[in-house]
User: Which sequence fits this backbone?
């Protein structure tokens, strides 16, 4: 029996992990009362008893929690931004070349960001294959459901007297300093982060990440890109589907409630659109964290996931 402690189980990511794990017979969850869930001594004691600890906390709190875990033998999977670009932590995206083996042997795993997961899944294989140059200047648009903003944003969108401005898509990250940019560039093998345009819209969960390319800038063509994805992505969790759409449309919430990711390519011989679709709380957060846990435990990666 594997013991698991979720530090920050009251947040949206922690709650989804809790829901997935309570249905498993191979997992025993260590829980703290409301009075103790912020008590450092109680949390450290829980970590010392846990084989796996998930950190579902804001960045500063995650850094403090990681220090608490240093005196224990627990494997830490951090869902915050705090450790994602540190060389002493393993980046928790097993679809990257050689990363699955590193995750399986690691005790400190940084779970990818939601927007970043979609971008990296699209770009890393193309950079690895030499189709996209490492110094290429790119742009990226990402549409997400409002659950990605946490409890405060969820409450705003689900309020009966919400502002009319919330009824239409809203772009944010306007200063081009979004917290995912560093990992987007580093883990894709790019010298420069993309011009990034994230958009939150009036639906609960789901994500659609789009990267446009001019074929004239590539070392290859649209068919070469499809072949790279076809060879890389054929698992139940990340799968390539050639030009999968809904009668000429692609909806951002198509994979809501699931833990997998769909990779597709659209366009023509001149202008190409790369698209990844998934649930921002699934493969974009909680599902990815559980996938990483499964790899550490040596069980099927899809165990406990909806794919």
Assistant:
């Amino acid at each position: 029996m594997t013991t698991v402690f979720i530090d920050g189980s009251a947040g949206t990511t922690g709650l989804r992990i809790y829901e997935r794990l309570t249905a498993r017979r191979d997992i025993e969850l260590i829980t703290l009362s409301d009075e103790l869930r912020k008590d450092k001594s109680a949390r450290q004691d829980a970590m010392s008893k846990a084989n796996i600890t998930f950190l579902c906390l804001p960045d500063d709190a995650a850094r403090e929690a990681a220090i608490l875990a240093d005196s224990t033998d627990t494997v830490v999977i951090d869902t915050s931004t705090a450790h994602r670009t540190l060389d002493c932590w393993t980046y928790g995206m097993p679809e990257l070349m050689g990363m699955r083996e590193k995750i399986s042997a690691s005790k400190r795993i940084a779970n990818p960001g939601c927007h970043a997961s979609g971008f990296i899944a699209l770009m890393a294989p193309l950079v690895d294959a030499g189709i996209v140059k490492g110094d290429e200047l790119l742009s990226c648009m990402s549409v997400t459901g409002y659950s990605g903003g946490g409890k405060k944003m969820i409450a705003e969108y689900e309020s009966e007297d919400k502002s009319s401005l919330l009824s239409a898509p809203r772009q944010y990250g306007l200063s081009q300093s979004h917290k995912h940019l560093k990992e987007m560039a580093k883990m894709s093998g790019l010298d420069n982060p993309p011009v990034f345009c994230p958009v939150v819209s009036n639906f609960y969960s789901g994500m659609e990440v789009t990267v446009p390319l001019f074929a004239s800038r590539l070392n290859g063509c649209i068919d070469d890109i499809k072949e790279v994805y076809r060879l890389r992505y054929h698992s139940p969790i990340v799968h390539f589907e050639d030009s999968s759409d809904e009668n000429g449309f692609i909806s951002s919430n198509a994979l809501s409630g699931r833990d997998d990711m769909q990779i597709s390519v659209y366009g023509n011989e001149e202008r190409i659109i790369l698209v990844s679709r998934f649930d921002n709380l699934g493969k974009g957060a909680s599902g990815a964290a559980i996938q990483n846990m499964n790899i550490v435990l040596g069980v099927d990666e899809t165990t406990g996931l909806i794919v």
